[in-house]
């Protein structure tokens, strides 16, 4: 055997698995997949293409309408993330749904006079839609959305930055450059537009804009705007059902529900939700009763002075222990009755400030039963397949019976019963420290939901402490903070705050581990360029591996961006980035289905990234990196035996790996050796033999 051939096993040993994990963790691929599924079960699930929003799960909120990506009145335009032009069809659709605020005319007038405007307003208030359509009015030849990661300074000198005859929009939410806008820069930008390329810079209302008075347009939403937006959406979405539309708009409960909606995106989502319910055959009363106002009223009743008949004489109050049981049902939705009742006792002790129910004189131990509490908690029992079962079924799971009720209960508790905030957070912290994975995830995501009610309080009381923890349970608390932020960022009002927070944490040593874990959630997939740059900075010290969060960013949907960044890392002069690129190649190669890297062998750009990454990894001076490369290709060959047509794509890819030089000759010899080895190791040896024969034939030509 040649001395340059590395004959690794197909699967890493226990020691190698540990070497592939970040410092301080022992997370296997199976554990990472399991935790990812648990997190996804409790997150708002969205389909961003076309602005279609799927249903939400977690906290009993199965049908609530929300979104975790940047939203306009009806969805995100399908544009290239780097200086992409908005399709005219998308603009026409937005104009059809658009309710013009007072800001619109002021913004158009400002652009006509000055060419550059800073549009300042709260996230979720419709700033993005207003900017797009105002720019379209000022310059009717097209709208370009500029790369928010690149910032605005480049537009002064970059000849390709502003396109003559087009309108431009750039969003600065969460970006550092938004805090650095100065009048001098805006004056230079104004000169760069020449009046032919109007530009709107969108910033949120937390950015300091005191010195930008001459360039500022404030975006404000009138009190009646939410109902106007809802009305416009319903009339468009239910144009073929005018009677149903009118009944919905005239329902007295609908306006009450709108008072709990904080953003135009939520209002748009509400309209889409009601349209689906109408087309599913639900009547108007059913639809409105399932909305937030009705649910909050029900939550108020559940958290109030619950009573039950006592021997037919008078009424008897249920104790605080029943309310603790209700809260445990909400937080631990979908877990077993025994776990819910166990944790409800611990929460009740914190609420009472005592160690045992029997310590409370007015609460004799056997006066109330779990059945009494169940009667007041509005829950149902199912098995693991969702089928109804009895309370004594061996696999009985407790589920909040009405979609959205769990969120309403927590919202009412937080705002109406402030004395419970501290004990509730203390209880959630205890679940994170000692609970199993599903309980830890549920507790962390509950904290994230509470942050959407009161960001400052939850951030100061819990998130900062979790993120900077150094004690015995540091890892659990850091990951809990990451999962909480992943839940919080689904709120369009909080997304910029979370983005700025993680940017700061990635530069502070005490918080870097939490920032790394946070970017390894769907937060990283939402801001892939920023997340990958921050992870690269975190890895800069050479002491922390970041390949696991990079893999999670890939898994969450940013595959092409991740492959491009890994290809760059594989050529880096810093060995720790090359090491992470190799480990990540192996980690990504373990994915199957739509996430499989082999799914990109037909697409030119990601295929080129894979080609560079694989070639550099296989020719690495590090033996461990070469092993990662060969293990990855072995997984591809194994998968090619199960997927028709993949063997030809893999063969073509393998054939292009060696370049016409000495290293290419060495790589060809190694490739043939490993294919012969895989022919003995893999369950389906025919694929490896077939690929080897095709390569020998091609390379001998």
Please tell me about this protein's structure.
This protein is mostly helical. 55% of the residues lie in helices and 5% in strands. Strand 3 (143-145), helix 6 and strand 4 form a beta-alpha-beta unit. The longest helix is centred in the last third of the chain and has 20 residues, at 662-681.
Any chance you could write out the topology, listing elements then pairs?
Blueprint: H1 14-19, H2 29-41, E1 84-85, H3 88-97, H4 102-114, E2 116-120, H5 127-138, E3 143-145, H6 154-157, E4 167-171, H7 183-193, E5 199-203, E6 216-218, H8 225-237, H9 242-250, H10 252-258, H11 264-279, H12 284-289, H13 292-303, E7 307-309, E8 315-317, H14 320-331, H15 337-352, H16 370-375, E9 379-382, E10 397-400, H17 405-416, H18 421-434, H19 437-453, H20 455-467, H21 474-488, H22 495-505, H23 509-519, H24 522-526, H25 528-538, H26 547-555, H27 559-569, H28 575-589, H29 604-618, H30 623-640, H31 646-656, H32 662-681, H33 685-699
Parallel strand pairs: 2-5, 2-6, 3-4, 4-5
Antiparallel strand pairs: 1-3, 7-8, 9-10
Give a summary of the structure in a few sentences:
The chain has 701 residues and is mostly helical.
